[in-house]
Design brief:
The protein has 543 residues and is α/β, with parallel strands linked by helices. The chain has 3 domains: 23-80 and 135-206; 216-310 and 436-543, P-loop containing nucleotide triphosphate hydrolases (Rossmann fold); 317-413, no CATH class. The protein has 18 helices and 17 strands. α10 (328-347) crosses α11 and α10 packs antiparallel against α14 (453-472). The longest helix is centred in the N-terminal third of the chain and has 25 residues, at 82-106. The termini are far apart. 28% of the residues are buried. Mean pLDDT is 82; it is low at 528-543.
């Protein structure tokens, strides 16, 4: 007997105690109840099946279900035989046509519209399947919940049912069939429950898989916060470029108090601190002064009746390829647009052809009189003292422009209109020599003291032009941010809207990210003149 027992011990395999797949998935305890399964160690499990589907489904329509937590979704998809489907569709089509003929003969029009729609749908579907343009599938969707207590399981069941009902669908607990329901969830590719299949065409099946990924984040960038559903950190790198982002511009939309200004501050501040980006703010409401000062930047307060130190006629070198030059043509365009803005909003009309011609002639004369050409060297006085420091020539001002316009006497209405915009007038903000320099990396123009909407528009337009010349064109390789909150003020007007679009379109070449905040999406979408331009400003990021 001892020898026999020893022999059995010797025959035991060294692999006998290695757990297999079955051992790994089987619970330590298992008790099936009417509508749930107890799996031991505070694990309560419940299986469901979708019994009614919405009439119209969309990509990711099951997405919200995964946020409930500890949920599994099993989607069974079985292709149907094309021959069988065509035969069944033909049979159903013939029946529907016969029913339609009966109702039509009886003069019963209450059912005929619905039958006409069914006939059309059946005919189209049959044609698509016959020509291999579409396929039919049988789909069933099973769902399971796992919770730590029966109370939690019941509570999440109510939440799940409510979420499904929101989608015009219906879900039911697999009462007395929880065991089969669990098997349906397991990845074993077997079917245990029938009669819950729903026929779907390819397009509808595509909306089921895959379930959308709720994590939207770049691998690196500024930290924005945590994903509400997953808790994962969210990073934004507006300069990441294609294919992740077509451009680096950001548009944030929200009602008053929704937090769009906070979002703009967070994005700009963290860009400055993370990447050392330069930043420029057009602060309509005076909300950015504190953060700019805290970051070591400069706040320039714009007040009505006081000159700002910005001259619209100031010229700065532009860059085309590797060549530096003075873009007088662009300056003529800037002045023309500025005059158009004034004319449109004060006289309710566009510039006449004579006025456009006169503006170009006078601007050219103003620079010619100072011997300023497209050459960068012409911008400076001739160095007679043999010093390394070059002295910049005095630029023409709005007063010089208005005097010439008056003397030529071809546009008296426009010349008279410009009087309030001269130094000493209520709108004489920019009739001066330039005294503001762009040495600071962080600059904010505070417009909060200006209450008149047009004056804010006028000031913002001139400031944006200054920004382009002094801020954007310099240091092409350096990351730069231009923040324009309450942009609806500018987008109401064609000229300022077009200018922002131009900054957005050309800014990418100069490593500029335009950050725009507005309360009203309609300001971007409703104006036909700006629809094509606005896409450049809002195709990166939308909140």
């Amino acid at each position: 007997m001892l020898k026999k027992h020893k022999k059995k011990q010797d025959e035991i395999s060294i692999f006998d105690n290695i757990p297999n797949i079955k051992d790994k998935i089987l619970p330590d305890s298992y008790k099936e109840n009417k509508d749930y399964i107890y799996l031991g160690f505070n694990n309560y499990y419940r299986s469901f099946v979708i019994t009614i589907y919405p009439d119209k489904i969309y990509i990711g329509w099951l997405q919200e279900l995964v946020y409930i937590g500890n949920i599994n979704i099993s989607i069974k998809i079985v292709p149907a035989s094309d021959v069988a489907v065509v035969n069944q569709l033909t049979k159903k089509l013939v029946q529907t046509q016969a029913e339609y003929a009966i109702y039509e003969k009886q003069g019963n029009i209450s059912h005929t519209p619905e039958l006409e729609r069914m006939i059309k749908d059946l005919s189209e579907l049959r044609g698509l399947i016959q020509t291999n343009q579409d396929k039919l599938f049988f789909v069933s969707i099973f769902i399971s919940l796992t919770c730590e207590s029966l109370e939690e399981l019941n509570e999440k069941t109510k939440i799940l049912e409510a979420e499904v009902n929101k989608k015009s669908a219906m879900i039911r607990v697999l009462s007395f069939r929880q065991n089969e329901g669990m098997k349906e969830i397991l990845p074993i590719n077997l079917s245990f429950i029938k009669n819950f299949e729903r026929n779907m065409i390819s397009g509808s099946v595509a909306t089921l898989l895959p379930i959308a990924n709720p994590n939207v984040s770049h691998n690196v960038g500024v930290f924005l916060g945590n994903n509400y559903y997953t808790g994962a950190p969210v990073y934004l790198n507006s300069f990441i470029g294609p294919p992740q982002l077509p451009n680096q511009h950001i548009f944030i939309c929200g009602t008053s108090g929704a937090g769009k200004s906070v979002a703009l501050k967070v994005i700009s501040e963290r860009n400055i601190l993370t990447y050392g980006s330069s930043a420029f703010f057009i602060d309509v409401e005076g909300e950015y002064s504190k953060i700019v000062k805290a970051l070591g930047g400069k706040v320039i307060k714009i007040e009505q009746g006081k000159t700002t130190g910005i001259n619209p006629f100031e010229l700065e070198k532009d860059i085309k390829g590797n060549k530096e030059f003075l873009n007088i043509l662009d300056k003529i365009s800037d002045i023309r647009v500025l005059m158009s803005t004034i004319c449109r909003n004060y006289m309710g009309r566009s510039l006449s052809s004579t006025e456009i011609t006169e503006i170009e002639i006078i601007v050219r004369q103003l620079y010619d009189e100072r011997n300023i050409s497209t050459s960068v060297d012409s911008l400076y006085e001739q160095n007679k003292r043999f010093t390394s420091k070059r002295i910049k020539k005095k630029m023409p001002t709005l007063t010089d422009f208005q005097n010439k316009l008056t003397k030529r006497n071809k546009c008296p209405e426009l010349a008279e209109l410009l009087i309030p915009f001269l130094n000493g007038g209520s709108l004489g903000l920019f009739d001066c020599e330039s005294s503001i320099f762009s040495n600071d990396d962080i600059v904010s123009f505070d417009l909060s003291e200006i209450k008149d909407e047009f004056t804010k528009l006028y000031a913002s337009f001139v400031i944006l032009t200054w920004t382009w010349q002094k801020f954007i064109l310099k240091n092409k390789e350096k990351k730069k941010i231009v923040v324009c909150d309450e942009a609806w003020i500018f987008l109401k007007y064609k000229e300022s809207g077009d200018f922002l679009a131009n900054v957005a379109r050309r800014g990418r070449k100069f490593n500029v990210s335009l950050l725009i905040g507005s309360q009203f999406m309609d300001e971007f979408l409703n104006c036909d003149e700006r629809k094509s331009n606005n896409k450049y400003m809002c195709n990166s990021f939308l909140v």
